[in-house]
Amino acid sequence: xxxxxxxxxxxxxxxxxxxxxxxxxxxxxxxxxxxxxxxxxxxxxxxxxxxxxxxxxxxxxxxxxxxxxxxxxxxxxxxxxxxxxxxxxxxxxxxxxxxxxxxxxxxxxxxxxxxxxxxxxxxxxxxxxxxxxxxxxxxxxxxxxxxxxxxxxxxxxxxxxxxxxxxxxxxxxxxxxxxxxxxxxxxxxxxxxxxxxxxxxxxxxxxxxxxxxxxxxxxxxxxxxxxxxxxxxx
Length: 234
Hints:
Strand 4, helix 8 (160-179) and strand 5 (182-184) form a beta-alpha-beta unit. The longest helix has 20 residues, at 160-179. Helix 7 packs parallel to helix 8. The chain is of the alpha/beta class. It has helices at 2-20, 40-45, 51-62, 80-85, 87-90, 105-109, 122-138, 160-179, 186-197, 216-230, and strands at residues 32-38, 68-74, 98-102, 142-146, 182-184. The radius of gyration is 24 Å and the shape is globular. The mean pLDDT is 92.
């Protein structure tokens, strides 16, 4: 009987120890380092009120227990070949966990609107995107590829540059699908918004200052699109 009582007492003591053992601390999420890679739209996006800055603020607020570093890597006038030339310096050297590629407008626009420069042929554009994404993925980064947004804010204007930009957006969609990249379909989002909010078919002034570069509403609009795509990847 005494032996039985001792066994019961020891059992209760062990149960008490197990119940009082503190719960293990949750494993902290890995830090995230996000590079936004692009042209003048991204270069301006790091300024106060720019889409990169706004996306950064939103992601930080939504992930208070995670260290998130956001880096803007945009340069005015750049096209896909320019991004390839500076990939190591401006992206891979930062050891990113995520990269957002927002490119394609100049690859089309420079065929039509500027002297002394030229755009990027469609096959070179596609091969360049695949090269960029392949190197980023090989370095361990999640990639989100954006379609080029707009040249002029009337999506049905019938201009050759608008039609060409639509073709290049289709290339970006295909590349994103075939490389397993996330797609941020800015062109589709812009067209949907502009058809609902640009009844006068204005060239500029709804989401852009000049038909291409973002105004304050456009920066917030793009930031929202970026956050929607990045949030499931973090």
